[in-house]
# Entry
Amino acid sequence: MVLSVAEKSYLYDSLASQPLIRPDGRLHTQFRPIEIFTDFLPSSNGSSRIIASDGSECIVSIKSKVVDHTVETDLLQVDINIAGERDDSMIVETLTSLLHKVLTSEDGIDVKKLQLTKKYSFKIFVDVLIISTYSYPASLISMGIYCALNSTWLPKIISAFDDLEVAELPTFHDYDLVKLDVKSPLIFVLAIVGDNIFLDPASNESEVANNGLIITWSPQGGKVISPVKTIALNDTFIKGFNPILLKKGIKLVEENASSVAQALETL
Amino acid sequence: MSRLEIYSPEGLRLDGRRWNELRRFECSINTHSHASDGSSYLEQGNNKVITLVKGPKEPTLRSQMDTEKAILKISVNITQFSKFERSKSSHKNERRVLEMQTALIRTFEKNVMLNIYPRTLIDIEVHVLQQDGGIMGSLINGITLALIDAGIAMYDYISGVSIGLYDTTPLLDVNSLEENAMSSVTLGVVGKSEKLSLLLVEDKIPLDRLETVLAIGIAGAHRVRDLMDEELRKHAEKRVANASSK
Amino acid sequence: MSEVISVVKRQGGFQYSVDESNIQSDDDEDIYMSDDGNARTGKMDTGNNDTESGSQIVTPGELVTDDPIWMRGHGTYFLDNMTYSSVAGTVSRVNRLLSVIPLKSRYSPETGDHIVGRIAEVGNKRWRVDIGGKQHAVLMLGSVNLPGGILRRKSESDELQMRSFLKEGDLLNAEVQSLFQDGSASLHTRSLKYGKLRNGMFCQVPSSLIVRAKNHTHNLPGNITVVLGVNGYIWLRKTSQMDITRDAPPGGSTGGGSSTSSGQNSTNGPTGAVSLNPSITRLEEESSWQIYSDENDPSITANIRKTISRYANVIKALAYCEIGITQERIISAYEVSMAYPNVGSLIDRETMESIGNDVLNGEKMRGNAM
# Structure
């Protein structure tokens, strides 16, 4: 988003004032409304489409494959495609590694839930397609993955669990499915302007932020988990911030994340 | 255990259709108004295609500009999850996809009135979320709808459809099982005429069968055109009624 | 306690399902081959394509008329004597001109349009301005007021210093002076009511919602001024001295024209004697470096900021409901929105719809419905 010097100055002064004044009047803990659609790709095990009020859109597909987990160590693969960006661009690669880290961390997806037999497990492929985005999309992507995994159905196994001596692959029921019971962590993006910190920065707010924070939250323990790191939301206003704001940010996430998760659950 | 019969003696295909039946066709336009000037979402059988048209707009690169007419750019994104079996690698720079893009540009560049938008760029972005045969035809339909939604002037609709040839029987609108089992042809038909904007034959077809295949294809494309037109009119009527009440 | 996030969720479809009438679609219909090889479908074409309001809807390739007497305008093309539509839209027959107005299209500049634009590029003696159209507009160096007044000679150093006047990203309001052959615009800011924009916030609506009017700069209650660019780009700012005097009733002949220049004394005397439009002699007195300043007014209070945010949200609400945007409607929507003391609650879809409905109902009751 391109803004003039006068615009940025106005926005900065508003966002740095005490109490802060956001351009759309939101509270520092208020998210913009979103729309979610799920279960629309029959050829995938799970799917979600999430549309933000500024037109940002993200489609997530979950597919599975039976693999030998004694051979295959990584049971979760994340692929991100941003329309108009090259696969080797910085934004795509950093987001892919961030999401992979979040999902495969200790507090991320419980891979024990993917296990089928003593030899085999499901490998989950998370494919993210970002049709359009106007600000740092990590939060949108994590919400999309959360909803997609929440509506993922995997084939139901009917062969025996102990197959160490067996040569064949597991067999499955003809039509029964089992709902995948995992909860993806959620990534929250926060912006810091002056001494203020707030959730869900819009694109114009991101343009004047002194710094940005990525804070991950696990629904498993209901707590903030790693990664927690700073990100530059623009390249003109960046400066250091008071570590107190880091504590504040973590507290903001701890206080509001469960309502966000709950909102994503309700149909 | 029943063998899969591509075309049963009773005249039924794998999905229960007859030789001259189209798959389920549903479309809508103006689906992505924030991100584009014109957009469409199309479901043709199990094909699911999102099309975004951005433009006519200022070209991003000076070198792209043509002082006489608009530049048409088409990028097709076949997602790795579009087929039942997830693709191992991205299709981004795959030759097959680049050929599809070129064919689509050729299909539309004579139909869109590029000369009334000089010095601009018309950027078309297509995302294939799911495919099940005859994808080229669906791409053509999605692009036609999105271009019309963007208000870009063109001579007529271009409707796309595929026709398979099973021995001597033509099968309209093939799915992927049929596509893998026989030769097929894709047509891009201009409006209600019998003119072709695209004829895509990548398999062997006996020449004496071609005329029948084209005839059924053109008829099928006309039907697709009518379906697209029906949806467009419905959308237009709603918009006009909405605007007049304010 | 306000809700943290509002989520609307739907399961089982890519989008909201289309109307019920689409479900009984006949797309599994057979294609019949008649002897001459032409196909007939089993269904009759719908005959009349007039809408309830009487305007005829046409789609690309459709025959509009075969009467050669018509002059063909935009959205049509002809083969032999037949006129066909090239877009999906409504037919317009004005005098002898037959054209088709597309349902949706980008802003097309017309001479005299008051627009808000953003500098995209600084070029050779000109700026290229993004006005949301098919092409960027051009703002020639000779079409702007240079500090120092009208008699100031243009020097070579001006060309090199162009960025010190307007640089990439700067927002300005201007008027469309003329159109080029290909329909792109040439702008000018040769009046003090045009120029760089500051002290406020930008927002954008579809250009079709802004009606061309005599005046596009309006003062709103709460000490806010809005500039409604015909191209859909909107600027909301704290009301300036000049904004106040522009709207002041015509008074005496003398009196200071207002401006932001420091040297000039702007009198807003008890008689309210002010000049309505800065005359050409004022230009040289009042043009100073301040017209290209990037600095905002330091005295913008929190209240002003909140009011600007509120106006921005109600304008977005009107746009969401596809209601044409005018000064009266903005004020009406603002007043309706006061029922929601928290400005941030206005971004909710239901609230936006409710505000839109209230504005329209209010108009109907006052008998202003169009």
